[in-house]
């Protein structure tokens, strides 16, 4: 069944996700702060909303895909936020990666206005967003998830119910801790290979199917070899996720030493002005720290 969806945030992830919703036959009212980024969606049949609240007017559900906790608070609860356009019984699904605590707070604010809220962050990267093969981790009410499952299915090949409000974001931060350490692992391995004078393509061929194989090896190492630093996932966004994970772990009194190291290495990348490059540029931070770049 086709739905009317307010979609907020047409960035690297949001744009292809909204395109997949259009392809599945849903009507999209899209809002993006920088209007020019809406062009591909409008060309594919979406209509443009003037504000986040306008995007929500008449929509069965609203999807937000913006950057960080304060951004999600702004686009949902701010003066022109989606909540003020939502009808009673409509559903807001935030698919950004943000703080679990903030997700719970937004859920409570929505509930007070008679609006359902799910935290449904995703993993799978830009390619997963393009292919409609993201994996969503969902927190909130199970009946609410079941109501929007057909919509999420247009963007995600895997949808996992994690439990109470905020638990989708908690799951995503676990995912990001594992990702951060994998990024550091492939970066150090490739920096070592280069220092040793190995042929990097041959090395990749030799090790990618073995015990060191990973999504990061398949997706980031070829870009490192090609010296392609354009972002699928920006270092600054990975740093945002590490910060959220470390804050969350601190609340739980759990020191995460490896994650802290990954944060410091990526901080070195940011200090050199590479925050807007893809996470594969972490290899350059490893080399720069050793004065080998
Ligand atoms: N990229 C990935 O591989 C990936 C994978 C999984 C999850 N994520 C998560 O998905 C979310 C989006 O990532 P992305 O890569 O799509 O980021 P992005 O390309 O930087 O896009 C961010 C979007 O959010 C909008 N935005 C940010 N702050 C805003 C605010 N205060 N008010 C209104 N709009 C605001 C931006 O609008 P403007 O166009 O005006 O800047 C843009 O449309 C993040 O939480 C990220 O951690 C990303």
Q: How would you sum up this structure in a few lines?
A:
The protein is 51% helix and 14% strand. The protein has 14 helices and nine strands. Strand 8 (134-139), helix 7 (142-153) and strand 9 form a beta-alpha-beta unit.
Feature tags:
293 residues, alpha/beta, Rossmann fold, N-(1-d-carboxylethyl)-l-norvaline Dehydrogenase, domain 2, 2 domains, 6-stranded parallel beta sheet, 14 helices, 9 strands, globular, binds NADP nicotinamide-adenine-dinucleotide phosphate
Layout of secondary structure:
Blueprint: E1 4-8, H1 14-23, E2 27-31, H2 39-43, E3 47-48, H3 52-56, E4 61-64, H4 69-77, E5 91-94, H5 100-112, E6 116-119, E7 122-123, H6 125-131, E8 134-139, H7 142-153, E9 156-163, H8 167-195, H9 200-207, H10 215-219, H11 221-226, H12 235-251, H13 257-271, H14 282-289
Parallel strand pairs: 1-2, 1-4, 2-3, 4-5, 5-6, 8-9
Antiparallel strand pairs: 7-8
The structure holds NADP nicotinamide-adenine-dinucleotide phosphate.
CATH homologous superfamily placement of the largest domain = NAD(P)-binding Rossmann-like Domain
Net shape: globular
- Oligomer kind: single chain
Q: Any idea of the CATH topology of the largest domain?
A: Rossmann fold
**What is the helix/strand order?**
EHEHEHEHEHEEHEHEHHHHHHH
Structural class: alpha/beta
| Total beta strand runs | 9
Approximate helicity band:
40-55%
Give the mean pLDDT: 97
Strand order of the largest sheet: 3-2-1-4-5-6
Give the domain tally.
2
| Main beta-sheet strand count, sense and barrel state | 6 strands, parallel
Termini separation comes to 54 Å
CATH top level label of the largest domain: Alpha Beta
